[in-house]
Write a structure and sequence with these properties.
Length: 786
Amino acid sequence: MMSQSLHRLFLAILSVLLLTVTAASAAADSTLTRRSAIGGDQLRLVSPGDIFQLGLFSVANHTKWFLGIWFTVSPEAVIWVANRDRPLNASSSGILALSGRGDLVLLDAASNNETVWSSNSSAAASNNETVWSSNSSAAAVAQLGDNGNLMLADAAGAVLWQSFDHPTNTYVSEMRIGKDVETGAEWSLSSWRHDHDPSAGDFRYVMDTRGSPELHIWRKERKSKTYRTGPWNGVRFSGIPEMATYKGMFEFQFTDTADEVSYMYHASVGSPPSRVVLHESGVIQRMVWNSAALGWSIFWSGPRDECDKYGVCGAFGVCNEVDAVVCGCVRGFRPRSPAEWRMRNASGGCVRSTPLQCGGGFYGLRGVKLPETHGSSVDAGASLEECRRRCLANCSCTAYAASDIRGGDGGSGCIQWCGELVDTRFIDGGQDIFVRLAMSDLATMFDGIIRGKCPMYDFETIRAATGGFHPENEIGRGGFGIVYKGQMQDGQKIAVKKLSTNNRVQGMKEFKNDVDLIARLQHRNLVRLLGCCIHYSDRILVYEYMSNKSLDNFIFDLRRRATLSWKTRMDIILGVARGLLYLHQDSRHTMIHRDLKAANVLLNGEMVAKISDFGIAKLFSNIDDNQDSTVTERIVGTFGYMAPEYAMDGMVSFMQDVYSFGVLLLEIVSGRRNQRNFNLIAHAWKLFEENKSLKLLDPTVRDDCSHEELEQAATCIQVGLLCVQESPSQRPQMAVVIPMLSQQQVPRRPLRPVVCMPVSTRDDHLNRQEDTSSNFQMIITDLEGR
Ligand SMILES: *[C@@H]1O[C@H](CO)[C@@H](O)[C@H](O)[C@H]1NC(C)=O
Ligand SMILES: *[C@@H]1O[C@H](CO)[C@@H](O)[C@H](O)[C@H]1NC(C)=O
Ligand SMILES: *[C@@H]1O[C@H](CO)[C@@H](O)[C@H](O)[C@H]1NC(C)=O
Ligand SMILES: *[C@@H]1O[C@H](CO)[C@@H](O)[C@H](O)[C@H]1NC(C)=O
Ligand SMILES: *[C@@H]1O[C@H](CO)[C@@H](O)[C@H](O)[C@H]1NC(C)=O
Ligand SMILES: *[C@@H]1O[C@H](CO)[C@@H](O)[C@H](O)[C@H]1NC(C)=O
Ligand SMILES: *[C@@H]1O[C@H](CO)[C@@H](O)[C@H](O)[C@H]1NC(C)=O
Ligand SMILES: *[C@@H]1O[C@H](CO)[C@@H](O)[C@H](O)[C@H]1NC(C)=O
Ligand SMILES: *[C@@H]1O[C@H](CO)[C@@H](O)[C@H](O)[C@H]1NC(C)=O
Ligand SMILES: *[C@@H]1O[C@H](CO)[C@@H](O)[C@H](O)[C@H]1NC(C)=O
């Protein structure tokens, strides 16, 4: 803390609110000025509301005295110092006066009234002698405001000079930090040398106007930058997300015009005293007066941590404070010097893994303090999409980001970097930057899963094929995202699944899963994946087009249901069964679908059924170890199709797909949905027990059925009931289901199936299972089915 004593002797005598210094009446004689000056022990000004005081203070055993302004509540909180480099030896010798030239001056009476400090306002207003003519009525007023500003105004009220234009180590509410672009004048902070020496120290806090403006801390002698706030993003500095938490207390104002680039804050009416100080150590701090504790609370400090140290991870490095080793490279880059990185010196930065030819794509780095914008170009008028296009078209563009985060859709405005990205860090509440990478590097980002398996499609091609993802081309929608119909230039029809980006982690995981699994599978009854596309936040899968959409559109629609003959239904049932059998045991990679339902069975132009949506499928690479069952980490699936042992205990087995198949089969036969208010299984079982199972058959086909077809339908229903047996061991394997359906094998008589529907948090049965189910997170993709 500052050791400091203040001169308070004549506080009682001087209750003046403002000091008026009358300028020379005759010639511009300094003596006249001195005559009307105040000095010595009387040297004290108090702002109208007694918020601030101006006077002489000492920080070194009463041997050095400075003219300064401080908070009345906290006299050691000096916000401004006049004579920081030339102290007075004694408080009694100080005289504050107005020179005939219009300068506010501090004179030293002990040294022949020598000027130890001058506002130099006449120099600033040089070449204009009229202001300070010998006109007897010309007068100047020096006044200390309640905002802490010492203002010198002429008789007409025009401000000739103000302390706010000459900050020392502190800024307060309404005080600018920045640059006058026209004159080159700067409003910047410079730290004290020591806590007992207010002369200019090592550090400066200045506005950098190259690229997108931001504030920097510089270490003077070394001419090195130590900290950046990150560029202003319309709301706050990119690297100070804390600013968003000051709502109601402070408002921030950023001016970026042809004349001026500056930043200031406004404290709301009634909020406590506050200040921002650049300390001797090079740390800048926002402090707010805590009247209860009679001390200053620290709201924010910069640099706050290792990652805030300028350029700690070098070019194309990214710092992450939560990692054990804070420095990493942007995806697609590797350390330039691995040996130095191993010794924890990452300042050499990173280099591209794959040299960039023109083209490529963008990798979205999310939640960062934007890198330094020197050499970047800024266009506040462009949209983010326009920004992407421009960057892609300009071979020297290495990254882009929104210059203003306000508004939806990731913000607006455009910053384009064309060289290295320096001083990027992850930070809570940070922004997104899109870094250009070679297409091949983008592809490897999927952990090599896609590599060589999923042909990469160009985003523009997909966009054109879907008419810009036009709503008219939308053919499906769900938790996973939106499916569009599209047509390639050669006329080929495609289905484009644009995965929802609002659930990024899960979306990515399921995207990978889907791609991984489906790329390995080739079967007539599985939807074929044609390719993939990565467009920063978007993950897109391109499938063969299924012109008759999903099965649920047919079987649950009264009118369209009638167009499905029994033969068509039987073909669909057998198709699904074959597709499932292939998944379970015929493919090289045995897997469980886990979300089989009518909405996930698609139909092509010939009404061939194909299973889709492998997003939550589970792959067993070594099926022998997992033959029976295994416990999964979270429950996924759709109400009505979920096997009870899975819904309650999270037991994963092939039999859960068999259960879903049984439900689906009964739905296809009956044209009715298994749902909360209609338990299809219980209904089917009741009819079956009463020897009236054919009553379940959809009336729209029943009358057209031949005798053989009716027999086939009865078998179907029996197989369906077998598939939904409560105990998984009572259910037939898919390998057995198919011969039974094709009447090559006689199904046994089913026992009473599951008739109470699983999966309801209010279900008593489930609550009793709480101990085992509490480890699982319930995720029901579609509660009522669709
Ligand atoms: C210094 O100024 C004061 C006030 O104007 C005056 O009284 C004093 O005589 C001056 N001293 C000298 C040495 O000029
Ligand atoms: C103040 O005086 C004491 C005792 O003379 C001395 O030890 C100390 O260094 C002085 N402090 C400053 C800031 O000069
Ligand atoms: C102030 O004190 C310093 C050091 O004691 C001395 O060198 C200087 O002459 C003094 N100045 C005045 C005006 O007395
Ligand atoms: C005022 O001008 C003089 C002479 O140009 C200079 O030495 C001094 O540092 C200036 N003072 C301030 C406070 O700018
Ligand atoms: C000089 O001062 C006069 C009166 O305040 C003002 O009208 C004029 O614009 C000034 N000229 C310059 C060059 O600053
Ligand atoms: C002095 O000021 C008064 C009022 O501002 C003005 O009317 C007068 O012309 C001025 N005289 C000179 C010599 O500038
Ligand atoms: C750290 O690495 C940089 C760049 O590779 C090098 O210039 C610097 O000397 C290294 N610093 C230390 C302390 O090894
Ligand atoms: C490409 O970007 C650089 C840097 O932003 C810019 O200087 C250059 O003019 C741009 N070139 C074109 C053709 O737009
Ligand atoms: C299925 O799609 C084909 C081709 O688009 C169409 O001709 C046929 O009518 C559709 N079938 C049904 C039942 O809608
Ligand atoms: C259903 O048929 C079986 C065998 O034909 C018979 O044993 C049973 O009694 C019948 N049940 C009903 C309710 O008619």
